[in-house]
Amino acid sequence: MSAIVERRPSLGRLRAARVVAGLLCLVAAVPYFGLIDLATLVGWVNPAFVWPVPLEVSWGVLFTFFLAAGYGWVAVVPTRPTPGVAALAIGGGCLVLGAALGADGRPLPVAVAVLATTVLLAVLTDARTGVGAWRVHWPYLVLVAPGVALWLPYVLSALAASRLRFGSDITNGVDHWPVQASAGLAVLAGSIALAVWHPGRPLLRVAVVMSAGLIGVAALAYPDRDGATEGQLWAIAVVLWALVLALLPVTAPGGGRRSGSDRTGSDGE
């Protein structure tokens, strides 16, 4: 029998991926205000200013849990990059959609940079391994329908505000409204990916749960501020949806058997 030799990226490529991803993780978390905007939820900001906390938090979750966490995953686990690359692709792609559908091109340079570096990191780490490992997780799939019902109105409200140029909350030259729409789209896209594509689940599950939960809490805590568009009943429903998603078992019932490509890109479930 001839041995099957699995091709792996060189040590130099993995080191380059670590450095690039680590630097970009810091950029998304700090200069692009991922963590800083999340801090508005707990009041770690200048109290002299009335912060539009729900808007700040929607920016914060996208840049922290999809972008910074995606880069961070690749920096820490470059030999198993698929979850991080998936989070980055969702975050960058949803920024493109938010800019296009919100008629505001200002997020596009950020989106292009995210997608370009996602491709770079995927090439450096050979992230193609395990990409075709599709497997339905039925408990997650059941939550997609209520997820669409919850997040579609949120996205549409943010897109309408973006098109009207409503508000003036600008970070690094980018308005928060199209980014709020992008955050809602990322949560929805992430929940769908969780239901049908298992390689990304280790990170996407955390990203979706934390993003949805914090957006809901921000709307509950600050219902009269910009960004709290759907009301308190919606915010309660979103928090409950995130809680149910967090409590579901990670491994799908009856999903023990895997294909060859599935085993190659195993996510350790």
Topology at a glance:
Elements: H1 11-29, H2 34-38, H3 53-76, H4 82-101, H5 108-125, H6 138-142, H7 144-163, E1 170-171, E2 174-175, H8 176-196, H9 201-221, H10 232-247, H11 260-264
Antiparallel strand pairs: 1-2
Helix pairs in contact: 1-3, 1-5, 3-4, 3-8, 3-9, 4-5, 4-8, 4-9, 7-8, 8-9, 9-10
Total domain modules: 1
Main pleated sheet: 2 strands, antiparallel
Q: Which bin fits the share of residues in helices?
A: 55-70%
Q: Going across the major beta sheet, what is the strand order?
A: 1-2
Radius of gyration: 19 Å
Low-confidence stretches: 1-5, 255-269
User: What distance lies between the first and last C-alpha atoms, to the nearest angstrom?
Assistant: 31 Å
Summarize the structure.
The chain is 65% helix and 1% strand. The chain has 269 residues and is mostly helical.
List keywords for this structure.
single chain, 269 residues, mainly alpha, two-stranded antiparallel sheet, 1% strand, globular, disordered C terminus
Detailed description of the structure:
The chain is an all-alpha fold. It has one domain (11-251). The protein has eleven helices and two strands; from the N terminus they run αααααααββαααα. Strand 1 (170-171) and strand 2 form a beta hairpin.
